[in-house]
UniProtKB/TrEMBL annotation:
Pfam families from the UniProt entry: zf-C2H2 (PF00096)
Protein's UniProt keywords contain DNA damage: no
UniProt keyword list: Metal-binding, Zinc, Zinc-finger
Organism of derivation: Rhynocoris fuscipes
Family matches, as InterPro entries: Znf_C2H2_sf, Znf_C2H2_type
Chain ranges of the C2H2-type domain: 27-52
Signal sequence, renumbered to the chain: none
Domain of life: Eukaryota
GO terms for MF: zinc ion binding
Keyword Transmembrane belongs to the record: no
Protein name: C2H2-type domain-containing protein
SMART domains attached to this UniProt entry: ZnF_C2H2
Length: 52
């Protein structure tokens, strides 16, 4: 990751998409294709939205 600082998350994501090829969010929900930064946030999402 570069040493630039970002004022907010949207700016960071835009920079990342433009300048870096590697994905920032590596954990993808297989039900709705949303990406998450951590395994924990993905499992939280799943338990919240995909309980079955
Ligand atoms: Zn960068
Ligand atoms: Zn989902």
């Amino acid at each position: 990751m570069c040493s630039q600082t970002f004022t907010n998350r949207a700016t960071l994501l835009r920079h990342y998409a433009a300048k870096h090829q590697e994905p920032l969010f590596n954990f993808k929900c297989d039900k709705c294709s949303i990406f998450f930064k951590t395994k924990w946030s993905l499992s939280t999402h799943k338990s919240k939205y995909h309980r079955d």
